[in-house]
Amino acid sequence: MGRRAPGAFLADLIWPPRSLLSDQIVERPGVIEAEAWRGLHFLTDPLCAQCGFPLPDDVGAMGVCAACAADAPGYERARAALSYDDVSSRLVLDLKRGGRRDGLPVFASWMASAAGALIQDADLIAPVPMHWTRLAARTFNQAAWLAQALARHAGKPWAPAALVRTKRRRSQGGLSASERRRNVGGAIRARAKLVAGRRVLVVDDVMTTGATLEACARALRKAGAGGVDAVTLTRVVRPVDVLI
Questions:
Q1: Are 143 and 136 spatial neighbours (Cβ–Cβ below 8 Å)?
Q2: How many Cα atoms are found within 13 Å in the side-chain-facing hemisphere of 157?
Q3: Which of 22, 25, 84, 220 has its CA 20 to 30 A from that of 16?
Q4: What single string gives the DSSP state of each residue in 176-244?
Q5: Using N-to-C axis directions, what is the helix angle for 88-96 and 142-154, rounded to 10°?
Q6: Nearest alpha carbon to residue 81 among 211, 191, 184, 233
Q7: CA torsion, points 17, 21, 22, 26, in degrees to nearest 10?
Q8: Is a pLDDT exceeding 80 seen at residue 127?
Q9: Does the structure show a pLDDT above 50 at 241?
Q10: What's the CA gap between 213 and 74, in Å, rounded?
């Protein structure tokens, strides 16, 4: 974890650090007690070489899932650290709705482990954008927090303004895959002066159908990006309601 600032210990006395998955007091920020840790489902090989979806059998380093074989995604590779489920959803919702930041260094390390090759190849890390009206209301973009933490962890440059959401649309929560694609279509653009000729790694908190990452990839390629990969903290791997 590295050395902590002297003031951190005083802060811990006033606001004792809590587990990321419960209200249990822990020794330092970012810790998860063993019982709760066992409930997390980290995504490991075998995975689809493109979208990172878990595969039932090892089909080799270049094996892809049926969905990618039928219709290749706009990005080249995507990975996620965790399966989005009843346990990991608390991490996402505390970050996204509660603005809880103490887990960011841990999340960055998990995402770095999941997307090692993608990070190594990246010239630039960029978050999925939020429309300025939503940003003004919420005051933060959790994807930007994750992107910044990952960039710091990996020693890579990041550009919070590389992608811009130009149109405010309804929330993606509760929409079908086709509705999500239509909802986000034409709502995102990329700044060519920041991304042209560069390989960009797009960061978000959850990958549900991949519609938002697809829209980001299309915008980046239109702006002349040299390549597009993506990494998320979690991804949906089974039918589940993602009302976020």
A1: no
A2: 10
A3: 84
A4: -HHHHHHHHTT-EEE-HHHHBT-EEEEEEEEESSSHHHHHHHHHHHHTTBSEEEEEEEEE--SS-----
A5: 110
A6: 233
A7: -30
A8: yes
A9: no
A10: 8
Q: Is 79 helix (H, G, I), strand (E, B) or coil?
A: strand
Q: Which residues contact 69 (CB under 8 A, 6 or more apart)?
A: none
Structural domains present in the chain: 39-235 (3.40.50.2020)
Structure tokens at 241: 């309601």
d(CA 114, CA 120): 12
- pTM for the whole thing? 0.86
How are beta strands 163-165 and 227-235 bridged, if at all? unpaired
Residues 239, 209 contacting (CB under 8 angstroms): no
Mean pLDDT along residues 180-204: 86
Residue 217 and residue 8: Cα distance in Å, rounded?
A: 40
Q: For 24-28, 74-78, 204-208, which range has the lowest pLDDT when averaged over its residues?
A: 24-28
